[in-house]
Here is the input.
Amino acid sequence: MAYKRSRATFEADLTAQHSPYVVYGTPLPPLDPDSRHDPSYLPVWQQDVTDEQGRKRLHGAFTGGFSAGYFNTVGSKEGWTPSTFLSSRTNRKKDAPPAQQRPEDFMDEEDLAEAEEARKIQTVDAFAGLGSTAGEQSQEDMFMDILKTSGETMGVKLLKKMGWREGQGIGPRVRRNARLDEDQDSGGGSDQQMHLFAPENSSMITFIRKNDRKGLGFEGGERLSEGKGFARTSKPADPASDDDQESTVFGVLKNNDKTKKKKPGYKGGFGTGIFNDNGSDDEDSYQMGPSISYNRIIGGGKKKKKKLEASRSSANPLLNSKPVFISKKAGAGKASPGFRRCYDGRLPLDGFVFSSNSDPLSSILSQDGKYPPPKIPPGWKSSKAPSNPTMTAFAQSTYQSPANIAAASKLSPKSRAALLGETLLPGKSVFDYLNPDARARIASAANNSNLPPALSEAGAHHSSSHPRTLSSLIPPLAKETALTALSRGTAGWMPYAEDPSKRSRYRLFLEIRAGLRPEGILPVRAPGASNDDWANEMNEFAHAAQIFKPVTGIMASRFTSSSSAPKLASDNVKLDDSTGVERGSQLLAQPTAKAKTPAEEAAAVGMYGPLTRSKENFYPTRLICKRFNIKPPAHVHVDPGDVPPEQGNGAPPQRHSTAMPQKNLELVGKMDMDELRMSGGGMKRLGVKVEDEGGGGGEMGGGRGQRREEDGVDPERNEAMKERPGDEIFKAIFGSDSEDDG
Amino acid sequence: MKFPNRQVTTLSGHSGAIHAVVYSCGTGQYILTGSSDRSVHLYNPSKASSSTPKSGLIQAYSAHGYEVLDLAVTDDNARFASVGGDKQVFLWDVATARTLKRWSGHFGRVNCVDFGGEGGSVVVSGSYDATVRLWDCKSLSTKPIQVLEEARDSVTTLQVVGHEIVTGSVDGRMRVYDLRMGMIFVDVIGQPITSIQETRDGNAILVSTLDSTIRLVDKCNGQLLQSYKNHTNKDYRIRSCLGMADSVVISGSENGKLYAWDLLEGKVIEMLEAHGGKVASAVACNGLKKEWASAGVDGTVSVWAMPE
Here is the structure.
């Protein structure tokens, strides 16, 4: 890029470099105008504006002008794609959510590149904390956290979860009057309603570091400034309290909510009138300076100090909790005249002292024998006694190992599982069906005594353990099986078609097993059948239900039921007996009429409408939509760049693809023709009237043309193909293209 | 109701059965006929007289090698398409009488053709090979833009109305391809369909079937609105049409008669004898005047107008 210099500089430079001999006039520019390795000056009108990829950005009107789209048109090779018409009635533009615009929408690629450059990759601070010097501060905090809590402690968190809030005391709620005004005497409004309040907050004791050189407890000038006045008491409302004067050696008693509204602790000053007189006589209204009396005599003031302390402690009950230093010797001496020992005869640990007043429990314990526990009156029985006598027995019996108990119990794993309500394990062992003798034989044969116990279940089934009732003879059948078998019956087919009474018995059996009939009903037995016959029939029914229950799932969709029920052998026999003609007519191969779809049946009876209408998806290609000047439907996702439009098709409309092999297409068409001929031609074959008047090509009605073809020789047609099953079967088995639509 | 039952003139000139007759678009001044003599004729019925043969014949278009089965004219009357037994779709220039395009791709004879799209940019053809093919007039491509293979049997008739392609097939199903919605609405009529025409308001479709019945089917739900009977149509493709501003249904018959029904009542209002008792294969109504034309396998076109 040429940087600009002044003309004079440029010319001087040029003259010096290229044409040192030119004295008059302006020298010619360098010979090769294309070589711009040197930062030679370019006039503005010769400078090109290019982007970083060297593309020319500005086009003059005479050098090509604006170039866009497809050969300077909006649109593409196939023309202009219209935008969709949006009816303003139903789909208003203003109702639509405004399109979210981002800054990136207004940036060209250079701006985007800049923005990309401006981004920095960096780690999150917390991640960088370990090992980098930048995070030293946080590292410090990390170790400081061990010693000192920051933020909320876990206790505070727990309390807050339990409903405590900052500023409240801990404990059960207290019923008291509402303190609406701090200045008001709490006892004043006796007629006020009582409310539940959180208990008063107990104050924390804080110690104030003394970093001045004033005397202990001196806080002279600070009294005048309200802001610095330490809140020293929780009872500022008590005018008689004198302990403002007292020094707070151990710190301040802070009560947050009261500090701010505390009356300024002015004790004197000008303008104190009669109303300021609070009745205490010994107070000097005009006292200057702190009212602390210094001890001027060493040792002399000790008595007084103690007295002060005593008075203070009595004045403020909270001061009871102040830690009081008691010297060891003094404490020990005060506690007991002699050495007291612990119960085990040892001295207490260092730093611990015996309490002077003993707690009641310890006193009871200490005075053993003096207050024995009350005796249980004879004949008393606990109401909490276990009701189960066996449990009591267990409890009373001596300890037994679990293995012993297990060995003693008569419960098998199965019965135990039943007691516990567990689901039984599916499998059954052989030994469940063996009787103990057989098991013993096996054990001796196998030289293995560690065999599962024989349960002889099968024996139990058949033998006397069950009462031999009629209902027990009915074989079990899963309810679902019975239901499905029944549903198959309702769908149109049921076994025992040749014997209606047997069929009705079968149906009744299924209904009983499906739970559709009440429990007690027994299946009807055939007239003149013995119990065994009846039981056999029931077993047969159970088998039939297992076999003839309809196929479900994928298999069901793969098969279609044949339109006609299989002819029974008995039917044929009957026909044969009666008339041979009928028998013969059966042998004649009759083309079966193509099964009519429900829609066709509906159309045949004239029920046009929803029954005869069906919808399918349709995938018009983009080019079609463009030609029809419509927007492609939403489910057509064809990239117009994928396939050249001359090829005709986009990818998804599989069923319309021209890529289908031509032979295949023709074959399918022929097969369909055959089908139609079978359906239509079979019925009308005898009635075909050859129309001569039409003369050659006069008839092109589909039906007519086909029938003609059929009359002639058709090499494509095979007699064996007459029995060709329905197209749906092939479709279902080999997969149909209509599945792709879903 | 007055029905144009006066035979104005007879257009002759074809040496074979006429399978298709259409009026030109707009004023309907001209009649185009397609015949099994492999030619397409352009007539001016107002210049024709029954006495002189080939009177009123303006142009004969001959390029087909087989019979011509259907014709379609563009809106600007500049081009027309013809299809027939030679498995090809011909696009003609009306003025120069030369084919602009010949698309081949069907595997059987082509039964029906219509123009679609903006300015007739797409030619839609239905064939005996059970497919409907859409051809692009604007490109030089020789392949169809799309092939509709839903029909299970020969596609005998189709009509393109706006963004919908209505097809009728021998499989007894009428299919409405809605390009805008991307849906196919299949209506089972139950009998092989020979002719389909949508009403002008687009609410109903007139369907002729091979059970000698013409049905008016509600387009939105497939219900039967009216059926028209009494004519004979069992073997041949006989075209029916709506006329007189969709108030009359007109159809030919296999016994050479022409029937006209009242659209709403379903009653025969007119029965005319024509075409020498031979099959009256096609009828066409003038869009502007109260005039219609019928074509028969006798090779003539009868033009009917209001009685004087």
Remarks:
- Chain A touches chain B through 70 residues (CB under 8 Å).
- The beta strands of chain A are 174-177, 194-197, 205-206, 252-253, 613-617.
